[in-house]
Every structure is written in structure tokens, then in C-alpha cells.
Amino acid sequence: NRSFLTYYDDDRQLHCTYSYAEFGTVVQQAAVFLHDRIGLRRGDRLATILFNHDLTVVFYFAAWTAGLTVVPINIEEPADKKRFILEHSEAVAVCCWHSSVEEVNGLQRDLPALRHVIALNDHGVQEDKSHGARSEKSLSQSAQGHASYGGSLADDALIVYTSGTTGPPKGVVLTVENLLTDADAIADWHHFGVNDRVMCVLPIHHVNGTVVTLMTPFYCKGSIVLNRKFKSGTFWRRLHEERVTCVSVVPTLLEFLLDANEDLSPYRLDRFGGFICGAGPLLRDTALRFETRFRFPIRHGYGLSETTCYSCFLPSDLSPEEHRHWLTGYEFPSIGVPLRHNAMTILDQSGMPAPEKTRGEICIRGGTVCAGYFKRDDANEAAFKWGWFRSGDEGFYVRDNQGRPFFFISGRLKELIIRGGVNISPLEIDDALKSHPLVQFAMAVPFEHRYYGEEIAAYVVPREGSSPPREMDLLEHCRRLLPFSKCPKVILFGQEVPYTSTGKPKRLELKSQLASILTAYRDHQFKEE
Q1: Cα 287 from chain centre
Q2: In the chain, what's the furthest Cα-to-Cα distance?
Q3: How much of the chain is in helix, strand and coil states, percent to nearest 5?
Q4: To 10 degrees, what angle do helices 251-260 and 232-241 make?
Q5: Beta strands in 102-241 (DSSP E)
Q6: What is the pLDDT of residue 113?
Q7: Torsion from C-alpha of 375, 381, 387, 389, nearest 10 degrees
Q8: Distance, CA of 27 to CA of 55 (rounded, Å)
Q9: Which of 247, 295, 294 is nearest to 275 (CA)?
């Protein structure tokens, strides 16, 4: 009868709660539904095109109960990316929100392996009836019985598709053991237990939301407060009302809370222990201002989808002075010390360990490292080398007086743009810009940004012999092709096409050249119209 899941949707004034027993019952019903009514079997892949909702959590756990692999897809992704993931993952069924059924049915016509479309609404499964009419059924009406399926720690639990710097997205295969291993490491590091209530404000189609704020509380017998999305206006009040002990955020959300600058005196936050923070560049200035203003610690860490989620954190046993030193005493905030079950190192280009304070590539191995990329032997060969997973991130380490290695990220060897904790491939933006008839060359580059860690600018070379396009015209062109989060916010024009002699775009060099110009936009809050 202990509380397990509490769900809030502030926009639609929805609120529901589940005890462990109630959650277990509805998960069993959903597992029976997937197995008996839909016909899915162990090893099948179930894609989800959903947002944060209690039923999304139910169907994740039901799929794992039935031995299925979940393939989460952001509901806001463009149709061509959804189609690619559905096809590449060989998904047999897709679970989507009822408002997405028409779009998904359109995709299904081109995907012979995708045999089932399961529509959900707030009340449960929405089933097709004759003549296009629909009826609603709760899961208890849709399925009866108790599911009992054989399973293994080696079973694939998730295939998470990540944006790549070259080519299409890659599907990261995470096993049941990966999820439980990282949950164990996170729970151990932060001393989570049965009395902890962890709040989720990040999307659960990402590993951060899934692993930190679903799997970890479940693993340590704690409870979850799930929000449809982050809202600064209700954030602190919810921590107070739900007696939350920890919340996982990205640096962008810290900036939004600083901007809101809410008076916390009406709230009782004595149980709240601080913020898990990662998944994007944290500025020293942001960390210092936030901890000074709100007096709660930032538990800064680092990880990738390929390492399930977090691989390291700042230790919790640091004195306030030591904590401040590791957050602000170097050019970058430290990402901390490796968690148990995995090891980290810095390797040079030859795969040899780099000395202390020497920059190289951050590499990781151990129980949190993924099983590999789905159907991508080429990517596996490049990423797994010298007995390590190569992160593609540049970094270094510094030892403390106990000999512990504190790691730092100094830059990215990969060219991903990380905006608000979300990886964005610049190639998508390049292609959108280049589709404009007045553009000869275009390249998306990130710039340091107060709210999102990184925001997106674009360098454009107009076509010769034509009048140059206006900045506003190009911005509007991108907004017709891309979601707002992926659109450039600033356009810079030039004449030189920055390619190497071998024909590769010099994105990092261009980013460095434009950094001083884009400094003026660091604190500007770009808003979607």
C-alpha cells in the first residue's frame, strides 16, 4: 500500500496516484493485453510515441514484464524521423496517443513489419470499431488474467535512438541488466531508499527521465512524482506538497527557476536534498548563482545513452567548501567521480591513458555500458575500442587529496548541439537551410547560452547572382521544416565556404570564429511565437 506513482498534468488539471499494489495490477493487465490481445511475444519491439503520462509508465513496465523491447520516440519528432525509427527498429507494434493515430496510420502503410497501432487516451486503450467509430476501454476491461513470462537480465529493454553527427540516428540497445545496474549505482551514490520521493520533470522518452526518475525509485522501493512537463510556476509548490526529496533536471531548468526567482518562504522543503543535474553544459556562473540563491546543492554528473544514463557524479560527502571548489574552481564544473559498476579514464589518440590534467577522450567501461548499436556494426567498431566505450567527449581529470579522480568535460569531439539537455544533430538544420533556393551553403553552429547551455545559430553563404535572403525569411523557412527547438535563432551571413581540403565541413573551426560575435546573444531568451 506504499505510494509508488503520482502523476500531474497541470494544463488539463489531471492528477492520479498509484500504490505499488495498484500499479502492479494495472501493469499485469497491460502485459496481458499486449500478449493475449495484441499477440506480442518476448523479443518483439514495441515503439511508443507518447508524452509523460501515467499510462506511458504503465506500458513501459508492462512491456518489460512481457519480455518486450521498448523503442521510445519523441512525439514532437518530424514524421520522417518517426518513420526511420519505426522501420529501422523493426517495431511490430506502436503505442501512441489517440491524437497521433492518423499520422501513425499513414506511416504504417509504408512499414510492413508494423502490424499493430495501439491508441491510448486518459481512460485507457482506445480501440478501433467499424465505420471509423471508436470506443474507450480501461485496461481491466481490455485484458483479464495474470501474466507470467520467462525473462532474462540479458533481454533488450530499450532501444533509444540518438542524434548522430553523421548519418541517420543510431539505436542504443540497453538491456534489463543495464537499467538495473545504473539504478543500483544511482541509488547507492545518492543514498536513496524507501522514504525517497523523486520528482520527474524531464521527458521519459529520454534515458534521464526513464532511468533516474522511473527505474531508480522503483529499484530502491521509493516513489515517483511524475509531471507532464516542467513548469516553473508550480515547481517549488509541488516539491512542498509532495514532500519530494530529489529532482533530476538539466541546466536549462536551473536558469528558468532563477528567472522566476520565486519566494520559497511559504514552502516547507526540509526533506528536499537537492538537484541531480546533467545532460547538457552547466555554466560555472549558473551553478554559483543557483546555489547562492536557493541554498540547495547541485549534484552535477555525466553520462550518455550509451552508458544507460549517469556514469559519474560529484560526491555527496564533500564539505560546502569542497563542493564549491569542484563546481567553480576550474574552467568547467567537474562532472565528478565514477559510480560503482563502471570505470572511467582519459585516453589519447593511441588509446593510452592520459596523465592527470591532460586532455583526451572520456572513455567508460563496465555494467552500465550498452550492448551496442542496433544493426550498426560500423558504429560499434568505431565506438568500442581498446576495451572501452569511446564517448566522443574531450576531457581531463584532477585527483583530490584522497586520490579520487574528478573528471571534467572540456569540449566535444562530436559535433552534437546539446540544447537544454537534448542532443540535436546539426545536419538536420544544415539540410533545412540548404533547401532554401537563395542559400548556397549553410552550417548550424552552437553558441554558449544562459538558458539552454547551448543555442543554435547558422552561418549562411547566399547563392551568387541573386539577391541575398533576409534573416527573417530564413528563420521562417526553418520553422516550417523543423520544431522550434531545432531552429536557428540567429543567422550570420558570409562569403567563404568553410570546408577542408578533403571536403569535410569545418564546423568546430567556424564555431570558434563566430564565438565572439555570438556572445551578444548569450543571455537573450528566444521564445516560440
Answers
A1: 21
A2: 73
A3: 35, 30, 35
A4: 90
A5: 116-121, 124-128, 134-137, 156-162, 170-175, 197-200, 223-227
A6: 95
A7: -70
A8: 9
A9: 247
Q: How many angstroms separate the CA atoms of 514 and 518, rounded?
A: 6
Q: Which residues pair with 338 in a beta bridge?
A: 312
Residues in the chain, how many?
529
**How many Cα atoms are found within 13 Å in the side-chain-facing hemisphere of 43?**
0
Q: Are the beta carbons of 468 and 493 closer than 8 angstroms?
A: yes
How far the first Cα of the chain sits from its last, in Å, is 45
- Separation CA 254–CA 277 (nearest Å): 9
Query: How many whole angstroms separate alpha carbon 404 and alpha carbon 407?
Result: 10
Question: Nearest-CA neighbor of 446 among 360, 498, 500, 522?
Answer: 522
Q: Could you tell me if 325 and 319 are in contact, meaning their C-beta atoms sit under 8 angstroms apart?
A: no
The parts of the chain modelled with pLDDT lower than 50 are 129-135, 501-503
CA distance 82 to 117: 14
Per residue in 170-193, is it b (16+ CB within 10 Å) or e — as a string? bbbbbbbbbbbbbbbbbbebbebe
Cα atoms in the Cβ-side hemisphere of radius 13 Å centred on 306: 21
Instruction: Judge contact between 415 and 165, C-beta under 8 A.
Output: yes
pLDDT value for 503: 46
Please choose, from the candidates 308, 312, 358, the residue with its C-alpha nearest in 3D space to the C-alpha of residue 333.
312
Q: How far is CA 236 from CA 185, 230, 246, 267, in A?
A: 27, 11, 12, 8
Here the cell at position 271 is: 526533506
Q: Which amino acid is at 199?
A: M
Cα-based distances in Å from 97 to 94, 103, 124, 271, 454 = 10, 11, 10, 35, 31
Q: In a 10 Å sphere around its CB, with 0-12 CB exposed, 13-18 middle and 19+ buried, how is residue 150 labelled? A: exposed
Return d(Cα 48, Cα 91) in angstroms, integer.
10
- Looking at residue 198, what is its pLDDT? 98
pTM: 0.84
β-partners of residue 120 are: 97, 125
Does residue 180 contact residue 215 with C-beta atoms inside 8 Å?
A: yes
Q: What is the pLDDT of residues 183-212, one digit of tens each?
A: 999 999 999 999 999 999 999 999 999 999
Contacts by residues 58-61 (CB-CB < 8 Å, ≥ 24 positions apart): 58/23, 58/26, 58/27, 58/30, 58/139, 59/30, 59/34, 59/95, 59/120, 60/204, 60/210, 60/214, 61/23, 61/27, 61/30
Q: pLDDT tens, 380-406?
A: 999 999 999 999 998 999 999 999 999
Rounded Cα–Cα distance for residues 88 and 84 (Å): 6
Measured between alpha carbons, how far is 499 from 505 in angstroms, rounded to an integer? 4
20 contacts 4 by C-beta, under 8 angstroms: yes
Helix (H) or strand (E) holding 110: none
Whole-angstrom distance, CA of residue 186 vs CA of residue 192: 8
